[in-house]
Write a structure and sequence with these properties.
The protein is α/β, with parallel strands linked by helices. The protein is 32% helix and 18% strand.
């Protein structure tokens, strides 16, 4: 394993290449990104808090101490890790934050590889295992693991947590892809997709993406909270979908529908509504244009015995890339849930 190297996100981040052998397309790697520690903000003294209350000024809640926590973030489809502010949310609370670019995505994509392709989501156990080994090498044991997944990454981590009880202390999901967009048709199309996956797994599946989700993020962008995206790794129009990959996704959805057994508390963050992106409108900047959020909310209740679902008005598919008000609401809800989790775990 090579040493940690500077990352494209700048001085606050480093990356580590994780060798995973090879397949028919050549060398396979995953890439682990870590956020370097940042000093926690100075908390107001007890006297300052008292005086603020007297003046009717807001008093910030104490920031939970997460010094024994490691966070592992996994991105979604046609995506990679670039969310600096999300990393800072954790590091300013004392946690160590890591993000994993899965094989054939982002930093891990090599020439000649089919972007994002995999035929079995359980194969990502190798990527996650290599990441956890590297995280353990960097510190003492006995730390709590928080899994944080977005969209397809949320599906991948949910399945992993259910297969590996006792390893994760908490699971946080940002618009996890837990059910097919045409949920009632999933069982009907699964056999046909499965047949295609066996005979021609790399055939492209017809899809319609007019680039409206990317446009919605650009419209919602906040100059006071800038986000830079590599359009090679996160293209304006989603990467091609292949039959073998879709079969793996549908199999994952079927497992969720049958019920998982995640033994850690789960927090699911979702937009309050879905908008179908058939033509451009302002509505697309205040809704999830990728998933049917009501179906995801119902599916989330099958993840395990302790699930909290937070519905955020005006949020995009990635709730942390929404317009200012919805984005701040997402961070407040995340902070509230994490604070409650820390208090209950004591």
């Amino acid at each position: 394993m090579t040493d940690w190297a500077p990352d494209i996100l700048g001085d606050e981040f480093e990356q580590l290449t994780l060798p995973l052998g090879s397949d028919a397309e050549g060398e396979v790697v995953a890439t682990l990104v870590r956020a370097l520690p940042s000093p926690p903000p100075e908390e107001p003294s007890g006297w300052d808090r008292f005086m603020r209350r007297l003046r009717g000024q807001p008093v910030s809640a104490p920031i939970p101490d997460l010094a024994d926590v490691d966070v592992l973030y996994v991105h979604g489809w046609s995506d990679y890790f670039f969310q600096k502010r999300l990393a800072r949310f954790w590091t300013r609370r004392g946690a160590r934050f890591f993000a994993l670019d899965l094989r054939k995505y982002g930093r891990s994509l090599r020439p000649g590889q089919t972007p994002g392709y995999i035929a079995d989501l359980a194969k990502y156990d190798e990527d996650i295992g290599a990441a956890l080994d590297a995280m353990t090498d960097a510190t003492a044991s006995g730390r709590r693991l928080v899994l944080f997944g977005h969209s397809t990454g949320g599906l991948i981590l949910s399945l992993w947590a259910s297969r590996n009880p006792g390893l994760a202390s908490a699971v946080i999901l940002n618009s996890p892809w837990l059910e097919f967009q045409l949920g009632p048709m999933r069982q009907a199309i699964a056999p046909m997709v499965g047949w295609g996956a066996r005979v021609r797994p790399l055939d492209a599946v017809p899809q319609v993406d007019l680039g409206f989700y990317t446009r919605a993020q650009a419209e919602a962008a906040d100059p006071d909270d800038p986000v830079e995206v590599n359009l090679t790794w996160r293209p304006e129009v989603t990467m091609p979908v292949h039959t073998g990959w879709l079969h793996a996704i549908l199999a994952g959805h079927a497992k969720v529908a049958a019920g998982l057994a995640i033994d850690a508390p789960v927090c699911v963050l979702l937009s309050a509504r879905t908008a179908v992106p058939t033509r451009w409108s302002e509505e697309l900047t205040r809704a999830d244009t990728v998933l049917v959020v009501d179906d995801i909310a119902r599916a989330a209740l099958k993840l395990g015995p302790s699930v909290t679902v937070e519905r955020i008005d005006g949020a995009l598919h990635d709730v942390f890339l929404s317009r200012h008000d919805a984005r701040e609401d997402a961070y407040r809800r995340l902070d509230r849930w994490v604070t409650g989790w820390v208090a209950s775990s004591r």
